[in-house]
Amino acid sequence: MTRTREADRAAVEAANTAFYEAMEQGDFDTVTDLWLDDGATEISCVHPGWPVLTGRGDVLRSYALIMANTDYIQFFLTDVEISLTTDVAVVTCTENILSGGPPEDGAELGPLVGQLVVATNVFRRTSEGWKVWSHHGSPVIPETDPDDPGDTPGRPTD
User: Fold this and answer.
1) Which stretches of sequence are listed as region Disordered (predicted)?
2) 44-46 vs 53-54, strand pairing mode
3) Which residue in 38, 105, 110, 130 could disulfide with 100, CB within 3.0 to 4.6 Å?
Protein backbone atom coordinates (compact mmCIF):
# COMPACT_ATOMS: atom_id res chain seq x y z
CA MET A 1 0.00 0.00 0.00
CA THR A 2 1.43 3.36 -1.00
CA ARG A 3 1.21 6.23 1.43
CA THR A 4 -0.40 9.26 -0.04
CA ARG A 5 0.38 12.83 0.92
CA GLU A 6 -3.31 13.38 1.76
CA ALA A 7 -3.30 10.35 4.09
CA ASP A 8 -0.13 11.58 5.80
CA ARG A 9 -1.61 15.05 6.20
CA ALA A 10 -4.80 13.56 7.71
CA ALA A 11 -2.75 11.39 10.08
CA VAL A 12 -0.67 14.37 11.26
CA GLU A 13 -3.82 16.43 11.76
CA ALA A 14 -5.36 13.57 13.77
CA ALA A 15 -2.22 13.28 15.94
CA ASN A 16 -2.22 17.04 16.55
CA THR A 17 -5.92 16.97 17.49
CA ALA A 18 -5.35 13.96 19.79
CA PHE A 19 -2.58 15.90 21.56
CA TYR A 20 -4.90 18.78 22.45
CA GLU A 21 -7.85 16.50 23.29
CA ALA A 22 -5.68 14.51 25.71
CA MET A 23 -4.70 17.77 27.41
CA GLU A 24 -8.34 18.84 27.68
CA GLN A 25 -9.26 15.49 29.23
CA GLY A 26 -6.31 15.49 31.60
CA ASP A 27 -5.24 12.16 30.09
CA PHE A 28 -1.57 12.01 31.02
CA ASP A 29 -1.12 8.47 29.68
CA THR A 30 -2.26 9.53 26.20
CA VAL A 31 -0.13 12.68 26.32
CA THR A 32 2.84 10.46 27.22
CA ASP A 33 2.08 8.04 24.37
CA LEU A 34 1.85 10.89 21.85
CA TRP A 35 5.42 12.08 22.52
CA LEU A 36 8.34 10.57 20.61
CA ASP A 37 10.15 7.88 22.59
CA ASP A 38 12.74 6.21 20.39
CA GLY A 39 15.47 6.14 23.02
CA ALA A 40 17.86 8.18 20.85
CA THR A 41 16.13 11.48 20.02
CA GLU A 42 15.74 14.23 22.61
CA ILE A 43 12.32 15.83 22.73
CA SER A 44 11.81 19.49 23.64
CA CYS A 45 9.04 21.76 24.80
CA VAL A 46 8.56 25.46 25.44
CA HIS A 47 5.43 26.48 27.31
CA PRO A 48 4.61 30.22 27.23
CA GLY A 49 6.87 31.97 29.72
CA TRP A 50 8.85 28.82 30.55
CA PRO A 51 12.47 28.00 29.71
CA VAL A 52 13.21 25.32 27.13
CA LEU A 53 12.61 21.85 28.52
CA THR A 54 14.69 19.08 26.97
CA GLY A 55 14.39 15.37 27.54
CA ARG A 56 11.44 13.09 28.08
CA GLY A 57 11.48 13.34 31.88
CA ASP A 58 11.41 17.15 32.05
CA VAL A 59 8.87 17.52 29.23
CA LEU A 60 6.42 14.98 30.63
CA ARG A 61 6.85 16.29 34.17
CA SER A 62 5.78 19.73 32.88
CA TYR A 63 2.56 18.29 31.49
CA ALA A 64 1.90 16.44 34.75
CA LEU A 65 2.32 19.74 36.65
CA ILE A 66 0.05 21.63 34.27
CA MET A 67 -2.64 18.96 34.48
CA ALA A 68 -2.40 18.77 38.28
CA ASN A 69 -2.89 22.53 38.60
CA THR A 70 -5.52 23.11 35.92
CA ASP A 71 -9.07 22.07 36.71
CA TYR A 72 -10.39 23.03 33.28
CA ILE A 73 -8.76 23.69 29.93
CA GLN A 74 -10.15 23.86 26.43
CA PHE A 75 -8.31 24.56 23.19
CA PHE A 76 -9.96 26.09 20.14
CA LEU A 77 -7.39 25.75 17.36
CA THR A 78 -7.39 28.24 14.50
CA ASP A 79 -5.00 29.06 11.66
CA VAL A 80 -3.84 25.42 11.50
CA GLU A 81 -1.18 24.88 8.83
CA ILE A 82 0.63 21.61 8.12
CA SER A 83 3.98 21.37 6.34
CA LEU A 84 5.05 17.85 5.50
CA THR A 85 8.15 16.00 4.36
CA THR A 86 8.56 12.25 4.18
CA ASP A 87 9.02 11.63 7.91
CA VAL A 88 8.67 15.06 9.57
CA ALA A 89 5.67 17.36 9.84
CA VAL A 90 5.42 20.88 11.24
CA VAL A 91 2.04 22.08 12.45
CA THR A 92 1.55 25.75 13.25
CA CYS A 93 -1.63 27.02 14.84
CA THR A 94 -3.18 29.52 17.19
CA GLU A 95 -4.30 28.02 20.49
CA ASN A 96 -7.33 29.94 21.73
CA ILE A 97 -7.22 28.70 25.32
CA LEU A 98 -9.91 28.86 27.97
CA SER A 99 -8.70 27.60 31.35
CA GLY A 100 -9.60 27.66 34.99
CA GLY A 101 -7.91 26.81 38.24
CA PRO A 102 -9.32 25.49 41.50
CA PRO A 103 -12.71 26.81 42.65
CA GLU A 104 -12.75 29.61 45.18
CA ASP A 105 -15.23 30.20 48.02
CA GLY A 106 -17.32 27.08 47.34
CA ALA A 107 -17.79 27.83 43.64
CA GLU A 108 -18.23 24.92 41.24
CA LEU A 109 -15.43 26.10 38.92
CA GLY A 110 -12.53 28.46 39.39
CA PRO A 111 -12.25 31.73 37.46
CA LEU A 112 -11.86 31.21 33.72
CA VAL A 113 -9.03 32.89 31.85
CA GLY A 114 -8.65 33.27 28.10
CA GLN A 115 -5.29 33.30 26.40
CA LEU A 116 -3.95 33.28 22.84
CA VAL A 117 -0.82 31.26 22.11
CA VAL A 118 0.82 30.61 18.76
CA ALA A 119 2.24 27.12 18.65
CA THR A 120 4.55 25.04 16.54
CA ASN A 121 4.29 21.28 16.92
CA VAL A 122 6.90 19.14 15.19
CA PHE A 123 5.95 15.52 14.54
CA ARG A 124 8.08 12.60 13.38
CA ARG A 125 6.80 9.48 11.68
CA THR A 126 7.45 6.29 13.63
CA SER A 127 6.34 2.69 13.23
CA GLU A 128 3.56 3.57 15.71
CA GLY A 129 2.37 6.64 13.80
CA TRP A 130 3.17 10.35 14.06
CA LYS A 131 4.68 11.39 17.41
CA VAL A 132 5.34 14.83 18.89
CA TRP A 133 9.05 15.65 18.70
CA SER A 134 8.86 19.27 19.82
CA HIS A 135 6.22 21.74 21.00
CA HIS A 136 6.80 25.50 21.23
CA GLY A 137 4.12 27.89 22.43
CA SER A 138 4.48 31.67 22.55
CA PRO A 139 1.92 34.07 23.99
CA VAL A 140 0.26 36.54 21.66
CA ILE A 141 0.57 40.07 22.99
CA PRO A 142 -2.58 42.07 22.20
CA GLU A 143 -2.02 45.07 19.95
CA THR A 144 -2.57 48.57 21.26
CA ASP A 145 -3.45 51.75 19.43
CA PRO A 146 -0.61 54.28 19.95
CA ASP A 147 -2.95 57.15 19.01
CA ASP A 148 -5.41 56.30 21.80
CA PRO A 149 -4.21 57.87 25.10
CA GLY A 150 -6.51 55.49 27.01
CA ASP A 151 -4.79 52.45 25.55
CA THR A 152 -2.32 50.69 27.77
CA PRO A 153 0.13 48.03 26.61
CA GLY A 154 -1.31 44.56 26.98
CA ARG A 155 -4.90 45.76 26.76
CA PRO A 156 -6.73 44.69 23.58
CA THR A 157 -8.11 47.40 21.34
CA ASP A 158 -11.83 47.61 20.60
Assistant:
1) 133-158
2) antiparallel
3) 110
Q: What are the extents of the domains in the chain?
A: 5-139
Walk across the sheet containing 72-84 and list its strands: 53-54, 44-46, 129-139, 112-126, 88-100, 72-84
* Distance between CA atoms of residues 72 and 32, nearest Å: 19
For the cut 60, the answer to whether the pLDDT of residue 61 exceeds it is yes
**Confidence bin at 13 (pLDDT 50/70/90):** very high
Please state the pTM of the whole predicted model: 0.84
- End-to-end Cα separation, the chain, in angstroms: 53
The topology under which CATH files domain 5-139 is: Nuclear Transport Factor 2; Chain: A, (3.10.450)
Is the predicted pLDDT of residue 156 greater than 60, yes or no? no
